[in-house]
What we know:
Elements: E1 5-10, H1 20-36, E2 41-44, H2 58-67, E3 73-80, H3 86-99, E4 104-109, H4 116-121, H5 129-144, E5 165-169, H6 173-181, E6 185-187, H7 196-206, E7 218-226, H8 230-236, H9 238-248, H10 268-277, E8 282-284, H11 286-300, E9 304-308, H12 314-332
Parallel strand pairs: 1-2, 1-9, 2-3, 3-4, 4-5, 5-6, 6-7, 7-8, 7-9
Helix pairs in contact: 1-12, 3-5, 6-7, 9-10, 11-12
Amino acid sequence: MKNFEISVLDLAPVKQGKTVHDTFQDSLSLASHAESLDYKRFWLAEHHNMESIASSATSVLIGFIANGTKKIRVGSGGIMLPNHSSLVIAEQFGTLESLFPGRIDLGLGRAPGTDGLTAQALGRNPANINEKFPRQILELQKYFSKENSNALVRAIPGEGLDIPLYILGSSTDSAFLAAELGLPYAFAGHFAPEQMDMAFNIYREHFEPSKYLDQPYIMACINGVAAETSEEAHKMSTTLFQAFINIIRNDRKPFAPPVDNMDDIWSPMERSMVLQKLRYTLIGDQSEIEEQLKSFQEKFSVDELIINSHIYDHQKRLASYHIFRKAKNAVSGE
Length: 334
């Protein structure tokens, strides 16, 4: 089995009865905890118009997290690039890299990270997204290059800085793009697992080495809920199930505490839809997580596993990431 890194995806989840300030403090606490456990990176994702997710100003939050930690890489998983001008993102991440040298990642996606009406408010034009997104990536690479120093438009800060770019995807489209550009590829298996296997195969088969990367680098994001006992882990996972029910019902309210019985909440059809979306979610005690990690890695052979954990109790969320680290060490023989 191929060895792999583990990292954290944080959506800055807002919980019922908690404030956004509480959410940000929990995110910082989680990042510090992940750093102490030697997780590779801590990523935050851009979403808009959701009561349940507070990471809309992603670059600002990255700065907050990086300032409160010392060594863990911090970045975007991702910035939804067509929501922004390439120059602004180059300047923002140039500023972050200048403040926290060698620690900033720039993961890039093309989806809006929100609903259609909010996407319009963000100034997106859906007619040219597939053309605009690849062009913007090339613009970012130009702004970050030393060769752009003679251009009429320059990114300062940003110019000449080594800020690694990652292509994010939830379908096969971005797999082709990441392969063509020779960039690392991260797939959103935590909410769109249907095409993950196909996307990874496309990326591997079509990958073209670049000055950024000489061979494919594959990252998979999945949900994970670990606890001391299997029973506790499965109860804790009902917060995640309820979050997906709310998405199906278009009710993006704050995250709810766990419940004893999901059958009181979801219909049989909703249950089927949720479990389909969460097919690669890892749930259990440490021994179960070890087996699930082995099974996942034997199937997908990723270079890095990014774990997203919707757990209502913050201390139990911290404990879950600790169990995942121990399980990963056991699987890898570390």
